[in-house]
């Protein structure tokens, strides 16, 4: 009589999983493309293979995951939406296994979808795309720009891997990493009576017209700083376009306050606009990358690392 295998003694027998990772890949592809035809293109499989795999997956789970309409593609049922997030997590864990061995430069592949608030994409995305292409040529960066409610909804629907935003009381259940910290600065037209000063206080601006950068994070931070100094701004114009904001100031229509995301040395003058540090110094505002507290797939982890390296001050 053979001796018991002590490595397995006392462990419950695990029944085979009634579905495969390939079935989950097809299911996720349908959810992302909206049709079986789209999923077949995305996964390089025949439409019949995708359809049969999904039918088998539904039979194994005892649930209908998709509603198939010939003219409208496929939409997720309530059960399908529940399974989708779990499927993403399982596929991420599988990628963690395969991405842990071999030539990592080429073993990391697939899209990484990033949502940016405000104008943060302008300061991070171009360098990020270049560096990712150089270090991981099989990773494709996709991006959207929107407000936080829109990005959170997209993230919860598994349409985004990461969100890049400002560190303003961000949702605590998200994991996050700091990318940079920027200070606020005052922008003045070159011929403004205060433009020759080496620094400027918010109190000194109280009687001057303001051009407000009306991006949510910037606006809230600006108002909080000014309220803390007992200053009520005289808002003459407002815009959510950073370049238009600078142009209005250049034409002498008021002063402005922006985050120094470009890490300009202060004071500076560029294109008829003077940039001055605020005195006394104001608290910096952090920029972070965040995601729901799940293990990151290796390709996404690699992109986060590159994002941190390019955002860090030199």
From TrEMBL:
Lineage: superkingdom: Bacteria
Keyword presence, Transcription regulation: yes
GO cellular component, one term: protein-DNA complex
SUPFAM superfamilies on file: Periplasmic binding protein-like II (SSF53850), Winged helix' DNA-binding domain (SSF46785)
Keywords in alphabetical order: DNA-binding, Transcription, Transcription regulation
GO molecular function, a single term: DNA binding
Domain HTH lysR-type: from-to ranges: 19-77
Alphabetical list of PANTHER family matching this protein: HCA OPERON TRANSCRIPTIONAL ACTIVATOR HCAR (PTHR30346:SF0), TRANSCRIPTIONAL DUAL REGULATOR HCAR-RELATED (PTHR30346)
Family note: Belongs to the LysR transcriptional regulatory family.
Protein name, UniProt field: Transcriptional regulator, LysR family
Organism: Herbiconiux ginsengi
